[in-house]
Design a protein that fits this description.
alpha/beta; 5 strands; 42% helix; 6 helices; 138 residues; Rossmann fold
């Protein structure tokens, strides 16, 4: 498996939508979901997300209780560069506030920001960009 996915969002509905969109992309991607961003971070640190994947795309909601997407990315950016390089992180938000968008863009680890709900075209574009950036074939 060259590409796998992680969904970090505090609602099961958003997990369901993301999984359905990935299934509809006509590929058999591995997908892990987390309600709590700190649990996802623990799995990243432990190396237990997906050892076989060359790249792991993470969709993280920027506003969640407990640990939000901004707190997640701040902790993620403290990790060893070799760990960071395996991940392609996309911020998900229902916010249209320019402050939020600018804040997302201030972090080097966020590769994109997508408004909820994500469209099939946006997902396809992200997959294409990530595979080109990482030099992998699906």
């Amino acid at each position: 498996m060259q590409l796998s996915f992680v969904i970090i969002d505090d609602t099961e509905l958003d997990h369901f939508i993301a999984r359905k969109m990935l299934r509809n992309a006509n590929r058999k991607f591995r997908v892990k979901t987390f309600i709590d961003a700190s649990q996802a971070l623990e799995h990243i640190i432990a190396g237990s997300i997906d050892d076989d994947a060359k790249i792991i795309m993470i969709f993280v909601d920027i506003y969640m209780p407990l640990m939000d997407g901004f707190e997640f990315i701040e902790e993620f950016e403290k990790l060893d560069k070799a760990i960071q390089d395996k991940y392609y992180i996309v911020a998900l938000t229902s916010s249209r506030d320019i402050f939020d968008i600018n804040r997302v863009n201030s972090y080097r680890s966020f590769k994109a920001v997508i408004a909820k709900p994500m469209t099939a075209d946006e997902l396809s574009s992200l997959i294409n960009k990530a595979t080109i950036d990482y030099g992998i074939q699906l």
